[in-house]
Specification:
Blueprint: E1 4-9, H1 13-23, E2 28-34, H2 38-48, E3 52-54, H3 57-62, E4 68-71, H4 78-87, E5 92-95, H5 102-115, E6 119-122, H6 129-139, E7 146-154, H7 161-164, H8 172-188, E8 194-201, E9 207-215, E10 221-227, E11 236-240, E12 243-247, E13 256-260, E14 265-269, H9 280-292, H10 302-318
Parallel strand pairs: 1-2, 1-4, 2-3, 4-5, 5-6, 7-10
Antiparallel strand pairs: 7-11, 8-9, 9-10, 11-12, 12-13, 13-14
Helix pairs in contact: 4-5, 5-10
């Protein structure tokens, strides 16, 4: 099989993970790595077995052998780098979040569409076949009408600069919370009509954790908890009128158990192929879209991508958590205290 050459921008942890994934996939090659420092790029290439390395992002973009660029940098510059890739005609796949707010996300995707170049978000949950099987089963009323969903995600990210700094678009919501939110939106098939969200904020001014309650049409509800201060079980529970479904891992499902209204197991669903990590599906979809010249993948539309960040914008702005970045509103001044007279 002819290998599809992937160029990776950003030489951090996720880049190493993706490199390993691509090396074990038929038809893919982690061909080149780029960092802003040649030494770092060279060390990454040597450690991870990559053929080419570059000390600037622009050099990788100019490499004619690169067929798709994967962006694995900090949240704050995803859109800026992606536009440069589009300018030179390179299809681009961006690690989530594709950008830090809905405005910059919409601008980027519109720009790609106008230029006729594929640009998509690497939100692996959207491509996970087990998650798609869950959604399909729900549409077939396997547990009756869905009434409630609970989902949580938590990891201890103490000391991780990328999630602590507002100027890097940090915070648990964009780094972790978008996984259970994506699961909820896929399951419910719509956006909520009412939301209540409470955060715990770090001394640097980003959300460390939050609980988000959502009410949907027909009285359906969802509760999402996300945190970067501690490990949670990362499960998703879907409760219907005739049973419930348990998803073992809300950001990378590998086992789904279906229960009847009596609480007894009615069966399980597991992956039906040999994918080892779950990242394989999103890269196959991105390659298919890029080769076909599509503006979006079959599993994740531009409209759904933008809608997710409209939702997170609304939550962050309610919290007065604005980033010191372009296209963000200014923070609201603290309310003046009123003296009792």
């Amino acid at each position: 099989m002819i290998e599809y050459n992937i160029g990776i921008i950003g030489a951090g942890h996720i880049a190493a993970t993706i490199t390993d994934v691509l090396k074990n996939m038929n038809g893919f090659c982690p061909y080149a790595i780029a960092a802003r420092d040649t030494k770092k790029a060279k060390e990454f290439a040597a450690t991870n077995g990559i053929e080419k390395y570059y000390g600037s992002y622009e050099e990788l973009m100019a490499d004619e052998e690169v067929e798709l660029i994967y962006i694995a940098t900090v949240n704050s510059n995803h859109a800026e780098i992606a536009k440069k890739c589009i300018d030179v005609g390179k299809p681009v796949f961006v690690e989530k979040p594709i950008s830090y707010n809905a405005k910059t996300t919409a601008d980027l995707l519109k720009y790609a569409e106008e230029k006729g170049v594929f640009c998509g978000e690497a939100m692996w949950l959207r491509y996970n076949p087990l998650m798609k099987m869950v959604v399909d089963s729900i549409r077939k009323n396997i547990i009756g009408d869905v009434r409630s969903v609970t989902a949580n995600i938590g990891y201890n990210l103490a000391g991780k600069e990328r999630v602590l700094k507002p100027e890097l678009a940090g915070g648990a919501l964009l780094d972790l919370g978008i996984y259970p939110l994506t699961a909820v939106f896929m399951i419910m098939g719509s956006m909520p009509v009412n939301v209540v969200a409470e955060p715990m904020v770090t001394t640097t001014g980003v959300d460390a954790s939050s609980t988000i309650f959502m009410r949907f049409q027909q009285g359906r509800t969802a509760l999402v908890t996300n945190t970067m201060t501690t490990h949670l079980d990362n499960k998703c529970m879907i409760y219907g009128t005739h049973g419930y479904i348990e998803i073992d891992n809300v950001n990378n499902p590998k086992l789904v158990t279906i229960y009847g209204s009596d609480g007894k197991s009615r069966g399980e669903m597991k992956p039906q192929d040999d994918a080892k990590t779950g990242y394989e599906y999103e890269f196959k979809a991105a390659r298919k879209a890029a080769i076909a010249g599509s503006k979006e993948t079959e599993d994740y539309s531009i409209a759904d991508t933008i809608e997710l960040y409209r939702f997170t914008d609304a939550i962050r702005y309610t919290w007065n958590e604005m980033f010191p970045l372009p296209e963000e509103p200014p923070k609201r001044a603290p309310k003046a205290e009123t003296a009792n007279v």
